[in-house]
Design brief:
CATH topology of the largest domain: Aldehyde Dehydrogenase, Chain A, domain 1
Number of strands: 23
Strand order of the largest sheet: 14-17-18-13-12-20-21
Radius of gyration: 25 Å
CATH class of the largest domain: Alpha Beta
C-alpha cells in the first residue's frame, strides 16, 4: 500500500563508452567475448521461472563464423506454449495488483545491473550471435536497453499524473489498468534492446507476457532473462518460448485471453498476424491491442544547397553501420546532378577505408549479416545489378559466405528511379542512388513520397530554409522519424520516439509514453460527495 506520492529517479541517457585502445572497458569486453565465444551455452525456455529443456535443440552459430557452434537453444512443443499462457494468466492477479513502485524498482534495478556487472556479458552475447561490433553492441545492447528501462519508468509516472478535472462536489480520477489477458511479444534479431523492451514495456504497466524472441537472438535473450531474474522480476510475468513461429503464434492467437501483440519484424508477417487476429476476433474476451514496427525503405533526399561531404558521410554511416540491418538504415538516396561528382568522390574515399570482418577485431566497421537466407537474398540483388543496364555498382558488390555471411558495403547508381533496389527492402549494407536534374527537385520529392510502401525514417539535406520547409511538407507522410541535415538512423530514447506509418507499422513510438499507453486500459472513477436525493432538475420548477 502506497503511503505517499513518490518521485522516481530522473531518467538520464546512459553515456556511451568509447572502447578506445587500452581502455578498461575494451579489455573487459574483448576478454568476455573470447571466453563466451570459446564456451558452450545451453539456452532453455523459461516458463513460470523454471528452465524448460525439451532435448529438441538447434545450434547457435556466429554469423561471422558460421561453422563455429557456441551453444544451442531448446525448441517448444505446443504443450509448452499452452503452459506459458496458463502460467502467465496465473501470475496476472498478483502482478497486476502489485504497486507501481515495486514494478518500477525492478526495471530501475535492471538498468543499474546492466550499466555495471551485466554490461560486458550483454554486449559480448550480442557481438557473438548477432555479429555486431564493439560500438554497435554498446549503443544497442547496453545503452539503449538501459535507457528504455529508465525512461519507461519515468513515462509511467507521467501517465499516472494525467488526471481529469473535477467539478465542485465530485472527484474524478482515472486508473491505468493493465490489459485483462496476456500480451504476446515477438521480437527481432537485430536489436537486443528492442528484444528486451517489447516484453518489458508491457510488463512494467502490470501485464503478463508470452515472449518469443528471434531464434537468432537466443544468446542475448538468455542474458536478458538472467538480468530480469536478478532484478527481481517474479516468476511467470515474462515467459520465454522458442520454436516454430507458426505453431507458437497459432497457439497464442487461439487463446480467448490474448489481449495484445507487441511486434517488431517484417511487414509481411505483421499483416498476416493482423489478419489472423481479425479472423479470431469473436473468440477474444477483449479487443486486442496491436502494436507493430515493421519494415522500411528509408531515404536521403539532397538539395544542391547541401554540403557534399556531409551528404556522403550521412550515406556511409546511415547505410553501412549495423550492416544495414536497421529498420531505419538509409537504403535509397536522391542527389542533384550538380553535386553528384563531389558526393561520389567522398563516398569512394570513405568506402576505401572501411574494414569488414569479425567483431572480435574492433577496427572492423562492418560485420556479417545475420544468416544465410539474408545473405542469399542480398547477394541475388547485387548479382542482378552487375548485369542490369539500369544499374551500375560503383562501390562494393562483393559477397562471400565461406566463413561468415559477409556482404561488401555497396552503392548502386540507378538510371531508373523505380529500379528494384530503390523500392525493395534488402536489410543489408546496400545503398541505391538516383541522380536527378537540379531543376526537377520538386518532382524528385514526389518520387521519394511515392516510390515505397514504407514510411519509417527519412532525411533531407539543405541549407536553404525555404527548401527545408517545402521538403518537410511534401514528405509529411513519408517518414515517422524525419531528419534534417543528418542521417535517417539513430533514435535516442527520451529524445527521438521511434516509429513509422504506412507499411512500416502502427507508429506507436517506442521510447515514449505513447507506447506504454497502449498496454493500459483506463478506468474512470467518479465519486460524488453529496449524493442528490431529488430527481427534479431546476427547469421542472
Amino acid at each position: 500500500m502506497a503511503r505517499g506520492f513518490f518521485n522516481v529517479p530522473t531518467a538520464v541517457n546512459e553515456p556511451v563508452k568509447g572502447y578506445a585502445p587500452g581502455s578498461p572497458e575494451r579489455e573487459e569486453l574483448l576478454a568476455t567475448y573470447k571466453e563466451m565465444f570459446n564456451s558452450n551455452i545451453d539456452v532453455p525456455m523459461h516458463i513460470n521461472g523454471e528452465e524448460v529443456r525439451t532435448g529438441n535443440t538447434k545450434n547457435i552459430t556466429p554469423p561471422h563464423d558460421h561453422k563455429h557452434v557456441v551453444g544451442q537453444y531448446h525448441v517448444a512443443e505446443k504443450s509448452h506454449v499452452d503452459m506459458a499462457i496458463s502460467t502467465a494468466l496465473a501470475a496476472r492477479e498478483a502482478w497486476s495488483s502489485v504497486s507501481w513502485m515495486e514494478r518500477a524498482s525492478i526495471f530501475l534495478k535492471a538498468a543499474e545491473l546492466l550499466a555495471g556487472p551485466y554490461r560486458a556479458k550483454m554486449n559480448a552475447a550480442t557481438m557473438i550471435a548477432q555479429s555486431k561490433n564493439v560500438h554497435q553492441a554498446e549503443i544497442d545492447a547496453a545503452c539503449e536497453m538501459i535507457d528504455f528501462f529508465r525512461f519507461n519508468v519515468q513515462y509511467m509516472t507521467d501517465i499516472f499524473k494525467d488526471q481529469p478535472d473535477s467539478a465542485p462536489g465530485i472527484w474524478n480520477r482515472v486508473e491505468y489498468r493493465p490489459l485483462e489477458g496476456f500480451v504476446y511479444a515477438i521480437t527481432p534479431f537485430n536489436f537486443t534492446s528492442i528484444a528486451a523492451n517489447l516484453p518489458a514495456a508491457a510488463a512494467l504497466m502490470g501485464n503478463v507476457v508470452v515472449w518469443k524472441p528471434s531464434d537468432h537472438q537466443a544468446y542475448s535473450a538468455q542474458v536478458i532473462v538472467d538480468l530480469f531474474k536478478e532484478a527481481g522480476l517474479p516468476d511467470g510475468v515474462i515467459n520465454v518460448v522458442y520454436g516454430d513461429p507458426v505453431m507458437v503464434t497459432d497457439t497464442v492467437l487461439a487463446s480467448p485471453d490474448f489481449s495484445g501483440l507487441h511486434f517488431t519484424g517484417s511487414t509481411h508477417v505483421f499483416k498476416h498476424l493482423w489478419k489472423q487476429i481479425g479472423n479470431n476476433i469473436n473468440n477474444y474476451k477483449t479487443y486486442p491491442r496491436i502494436v507493430g514496427e515493421t519494415g522500411g525503405k528509408d531515404f536521403i533526399w539532397v538539395h544542391n544547397s547541401s554540403n557534399p561531404l556531409q551528404v556522403a558521410t550521412a550515406i556511409t554511416r546511415g547505410s553501412f553501420e549495423f550492416q544495414g540491418q536497421k529498420c531505419s538504415a538509409a537504403s535509397r538516396a536522391y542527389i542533384p546532378a550538380s553535386m553528384w561528382s563531389a558526393v561520389k568522390k567522398h563516398l569512394i574515399a570513405q568506402a576505401s577505408e572501411i574494414k569488414m570482418g569479425s567483431p572480435e577485431d574492433p577496427s572492423n566497421y562492418v560485420n556479417a549479416v545475420i544468416h544465410e537466407g539474408s545473405f542469399d537474398k542480398i547477394a541475388s540483388f547485387l548479382d542482378a545489378a552487375k548485369t542490369d543496364k539500369d544499374a551500375e555498382i560503383i562501390i562494393g558488390g562483393g559477397h562471400d559466405k565461406s566463413v561468415g555471411y559477409f556482404i561488401e558495403p555497396t552503392i548502386i547508381v540507378a538510371k531508373n528511379p523505380k529500379y528494384t533496389t530503390m523500392c525493395t527492402e534488402l536489410f543489408g549494407p546496400v545503398m541505391t542512388i538516383y541522380v536527378y536534374e537540379d531543376a526537377e527537385w520538386e518532382a524528385s520529392l514526389k518520387l521519394v513520397d511515392e516510390t515505397s510502401e514504407y514510411a519509417l525514417t527519412g532525411a533531407i539535406f539543405s541549407t536553404d530554409r525555404y527548401i527545408v520547409e517545402k521538403a518537410s511538407k511534401a514528405l509529411e507522410n513519408a517518414a515517422g522519424n524525419f531528419y534534417i541535415n543528418d542521417k535517417p538512423t539513430g533514435a535516442v530514447v527520451g529524445q527521438q520516439p521511434f516509429g513509422g506509418a504506412r507499411a512500416s507499422g502502427t507508429n506507436d513510438k517506442a521510447g515514449s509514453a505513447q507506447n506504454l499507453l497502449r498496454w493500459t486500459s483506463v478506468r474512470l472513477i467518479k465519486e460524488t460527495f453529496v449524493t442528490p436525493q431529488d430527481y427534479k432538475y431546476p427547469y421542472l420548477g
